Amino acid sequence: MKKSISPSEARGTQAAPASKSEMQRAVAAALIANGRTTITNPSFCDDSRAALGIAEALGAAVHVSSDRVIIDGGINPAVSVLDCGESGLGVRMFTPIAALTGRQMTLTGRGSLLKRPVSTIEESLSDLGASVKSQNGFLPIEVSSKLKGGSTVIDGSLSSQFLTGLLMALPSAEEDSLISVNNLQSRQYIDITLKVLNHFSVSVENSNYNLFKIRGRQAFVPADICIEGDWSGAAFLLCAGAIRGQVRVTGLNNLSLQPDRRIVDALRLAGADITEGEGYVTAAHSTLKRFEFDAAECPDLFPPLAALAMYCEGTTLLRGARRLTHKESDRGAVIKNELGRLNGNIELDGDCMVIKGSRVTGGTTDSHGDHRIAMACAIAALGAEGPVVIDHAESIDKSYHEFYEHLAALGVNVQ
């Protein structure tokens, strides 16, 4: 699918999409809990739907309506193959949960997920009693033998998602567990995991994010949960307002644990006119200037901030670029190439992305199947000299399937 975004002002108020990060964790917890959980303000993006499908395949009864999801939990697998779609969190979280069954299960996926490494899963799950085999470090991954608990060491430098999976699964294991973690990135995503676990009456002892002690044989207690607005999706709308217009995003938790809440800090550094109130943030265009920002703990902010930086006077530095290699695309290189088609002057220098403010032209771009690249190209079009065409524009469905509809509601010319 192609979308064409013409230069436009983005003005108005838009509710944030629901957080897929919290939604997927809530679905996993509801699956493990024996009883009924109601999820309000649910996310229905592709990754969230994949999580619901896995929960159903593992034995939960899932009832979906427009404004809520009801899950009658309990693990009792109906099939032996679990389809994770393109969700990296899905495969890294549900592999340990599948290992609770003691049955032979295969987890697979589609598209970019088939190129994302899962080798870190094998050794740790073997330490904890399960037998795991991938295809040379990639999907599909087969799990057999039951997850029992015990001790393991994991590397958190590439992603915190596998740690989330262990934290979700090990409270149900027969034995207590001890996880030592080296070089953990994106700590706030672990905070979200611990928050959801606590909501379902499960406790984990966290010692400075280096050591996690987990008591086995804990019971997940069903609990109704309302999903927060997603700061990752809101970041694109706020950057749209800062580039050209004025956008208020509602439905946000100003005290959220989501790391992408730092978009507000970055926008202020860039000189955007920012107003915060209870449950909302407004970003309006002002004279934009160069800024420096460390996005190592919030790497999903690279695409919207790179688009924003194209409109900033001077040279902007975004640190943490090494985190971008194993996303839905080689995201650093794709940002450089695709925004470069719009006359963006972007270089990668080790761990830094260097963006020089420049005259932004129209042109044809390709999302490379990466939802955040498609959204970055769309907001980059707002102040451009001509329309921006996005190939494979449907990739936004992975996290924010209403994105183009919401842009249009803000007055952006989307065709």
Structure in words:
This protein is α/β, with parallel strands linked by helices and 415 residues long. It has twelve helices and 23 strands. The strands form six sheets. Strands 2-15-17-16 form a four-stranded mixed β-sheet. The chain has a four-stranded mixed β-sheet with strand order 4-5-3-14, with helices on one face. A hairpin with a 3-residue loop joins strand 4 (61-64) and strand 5 (68-72). Helix 1 packs parallel to helix 3 (88-98), helix 1 (20-32) packs across helix 6 (187-199) and helix 7 packs parallel to helix 9.
Mean pLDDT: 96
Strand order of the largest sheet: 2-15-17-16
The geometry reads as globular
End-to-end span in angstroms?
A: 11 Å
Q: Largest sheet at a glance? A: 4 strands, mixed
Instruction: Pick out the low-confidence regions.
Output: none
Secondary structure: number of strands: 23
Radius of gyration: 21 Å
Quickly count the helices: 12
Percent helix: 25-40%
Summary, kept brief:
Helix content is 29%, strand content 26%. It has 415 residues and is an alpha/beta fold.
